[in-house]
Amino acid sequence: MNGAAGNAMASLELFSGPTSWEDYEACTLGADGVDLEGQCGIKQISHLTSDFGELKRKLHQTAFPRRSTLTSVALGIAEQEIKYGRAGAAPVVVVVTDGEPISVMQTVDAAHKLQSVAKVIWVAIGGEAPVEMIEHVAQLPKHEHIIHVGSFYELREAEAFNTLINEVVTKVCPQAGSPCVLEPTSCECSLHKDAGFCSTYEAGACSELCPNWRPAPQCSTDWNGLNFCNDWCNTPNMWGCGVATLSSRDDRNPSGNDYKCDCGGCNGCPATPYVPPQVSPFDG
Questions:
Q1: I need a labelling partner for 16 at 20 to 30 A (CA). Which of 71, 107, 141, 225 fits?
Q2: Which CATH class is domain 10-172?
C-alpha cells in the first residue's frame, strides 16, 4: 500500500449518519444543497486513485465519527464511485460496519443495486453489527462475501488485524498467487505479472489460462461445504502452508479419494512461487 505502481485503483469513504430526523430526510430524499459530510455524516476521503500511499496517509488523519449509521446512502455513493473506474475493471466494494442501519429496508435495496455492478465484501464488527441483514443480502456463496470480527478492540492486536487483512485479500482476490499477467485488464487479480501468461475475468472471478504452475490446485473455499483456503490453511492443529492432503479415510471426505491442494495465497500463506518449466537444450 505504499507505492503507486500498477493499474489497480481504490477509493475510500467514511460513513456514519445524521444527528436529526430533519437531516435524515434531507439525506435520503435528495434535497438540494444537502451537506453530505455535515448533515449526512458521510465523507469521501478519496476518489479512485492508484496512489495508495496518499490514501493511507489520508486514512490515518481521519477520526472515527461516532454517530448514527446511514448505510443506504453510503452504498449508493459507492455505486456512483464505480462509474469512474477503469473501463472493463471488475469492481469490489468492502463494507466495514459496526451498527444497525437507520433503515434496513433502504439499505437492502441499496445493497442489491450495488451488488448488481460489483462484488461486495461485508465486514461485520461487534455485537451491534447488522449480521442478520448482511446474511440476508450478501451475494452467494455467503461465506466468501461475509467476514465476522468480534470487536474493534480485537483488531488492536497485530495478529488479529493481519488475519482480517489476509481474509479480505483472499475474498477480494481468490486467485492470489497467480503468475498471470492481466490481459485483458478486466481481471483484477494482479498480484503477480509474468509476461508469458494471462488471465481473463469470468463470472465474478479470475479464470486462469496459465499452464499448471501449482504443485496442486489452490485449496477450495467450498469443497463439500469445507472452506479449506480460509479455515484450514495456516491454521493451528489443521494445515500449514504449502501442499496439504485430506485423506480418503477421513470422515469429512465423502469423495473416496484423497483431496490434495495448495495453500499458497490462502489465509496469510505466501503465494506459491512460479517456477518456469525447464527447457531441454535438445528440444526444438
A1: 141
A2: alpha beta
- Domain segments of the chain as ranges: 10-172, 176-211, 214-284
Q: What is the 3-state secondary structure (H, E, C) of the chain?
A: CCCCCCCCCEEEEEECCCCCHHHHHHHHCCCCCCCCCCCCCEEEEEEEECCHHHHHHHHHCCCCCCCCCCHHHHHHHHHHHHCCCCCCCCCEEEEEECCCCCCHHHHHHHHHHHHCCCEEEEEEECCCCCHHHHHHHCCCCHHHCEEEECCCHHHHCHHHHHHHHHHHHHHHCCCCCCCEEECCCCCCCCCCCEEEEEEEEECCEEEECCCCCCCCCECCCCECCECHHHHHCCCCCCCCCCEEEECCCCCCCCCCCCEEEECCCCCCCCCCCCCCCCCCCCCC
Report yes or no: 40 and 1 within 8 Å, Cβ to Cβ.
no
Q: What percent of the chain has pLDDT over 90?
A: 35
Neighbours of 57 (CB within 10 A): 11
**In Å, how far are 94, 100, 170 from 12, measured between CA atoms?**
10, 21, 20
What are the backbone angles phi and psi of residue 77, rounded to the nearest 5°? -65, -40
Does the pTM exceed 0.90?
no
Q: What percent of the chain has pLDDT over 70?
A: 78
Question: How high is the pLDDT of residue 185?
Answer: 40
